[in-house]
Design brief:
The chain has 267 residues and is mainly beta. The protein has a single domain, classed as Jelly Rolls, CATH 2.60.120.560. The protein has three helices and 17 strands. The strands form two sheets. Strands 1, 3, 4, 6, 10, 11, 13, 14, 15 and 17 form a ten-stranded antiparallel β-sheet that branches. It has a seven-stranded antiparallel β-sheet with strand order 2-5-16-7-8-9-12, with no helix packed on it. A hairpin with a 2-residue loop joins strand 3 and strand 4. The longest helix has 25 residues. The chain is globular and about 40 Å long.
């Protein structure tokens, strides 16, 4: 009888240990959540620098990029006409292997002089060239653009599309040289907030997500196509893989707002 009692005691002890280990395992912190880092402090443009066509790097012409009530805004209150002053707000550090996420929404009306295709149009530029090397009158950095579109209450307009200023990608196992590849997202009308996330694996794989759903993926981003500055220099780099670069937010003539801008550096 004593033998069986000892066996039972050992069995109960092992069960307690297993239960304890199981509980400890479930309490392991979510390391991915802990490694998301805020790129926007909600107070000012610290860490971000504008480059607007026709103006030097660092000149925030007409206060295009501003911060109000914790939101980063593209504003045209001081503009009489857009006059093709395409702008980009660059984060200070380049990245290669990461996840990026934020919320955006379009507001108000397009400023006078904006292009028809730029209504409710903005973008996140990734793998950007160094903004310090951009030409004074250069429209867009050589980059991969995650295009952000808002609905016009009439047409279907997917968001999270791909645009390729000075670049090419491989999509569905084929080289694509067209400027735009549409995503599978639905249309988001009015001024609702939309959540966008990008997963970037240097030059191997890039994915776009809208409100938690994957809407586009492609591979092998590389230099290719026409640019509006230093064409000879970029011609010498054709087919060079894009393994990393800067991140920028776009101003294309329609007021837009950004918040909760974060990055998870996978390196």
């Amino acid at each position: 009888m004593k033998f069986y009692n000892n066996v039972l005691s050992v069995f109960i002890l092992l069960l307690c240990i297993a239960y304890s280990c199981k509980n400890k395992k479930t309490k392991i912190p979510n390391t991915e959540k802990e490694q998301w880092v805020k790129l926007f402090n909600g107070k000012d443009l610290e860490g971000w620098t504008p480059k607007i066509k026709g103006y030097k790097y660092g000149d925030n012409h007409n206060n295009t990029f501003t911060v109000e009530e914790g939101i980063l805004k593209v504003s045209y209150k001081a503009y009489d006409s857009f006059n093709n002053t395409f702008g980009h707000l660059f984060y200070k550090s380049p990245y290669s292997n990461y996840k990026f996420r934020m919320d955006y929404r379009f507001t108000g009306e397009q400023v006078a002089g904006g292009r028809p295709w730029a209504i409710r149009n903005s973008g996140i530029m990734i793998h950007c060239e160094d903004p310090k090397n951009m030409g004074l009158k250069q429209n867009f950095p050589v980059s991969i653009e995650v295009q952000l579109l808002g609905g016009n209450s009439i047409d279907e307009r997917s968001t999270g599309n791909l645009c390729t200023p000075g670049t090419h990608v491989v999509y569905k196992d084929s080289l694509v040289t067209e400027h735009i590849i549409k995503s599978t997202s639905k249309t988001y009308h009015s001024d609702q907030w939309v959540h966008v996330e990008i997963e970037v694996r240097n030059d191997s794989l890039i994915k776009h997500f809208i409100n938690g759903k994957e809407v586009l993926r492609y591979t092998k981003p590389h230099i290719g196509g026409k640019v509006d500055h230093n064409q000879e220099v970029w011609n010498s780099k054709v087919n060079q893989p894009l393994k990393g670069g800067y991140i920028s937010l776009q101003s294309e003539s329609h007021p837009v707002e950004f918040k909760n801008i974060e990055i998870f550096n996978l390196d």
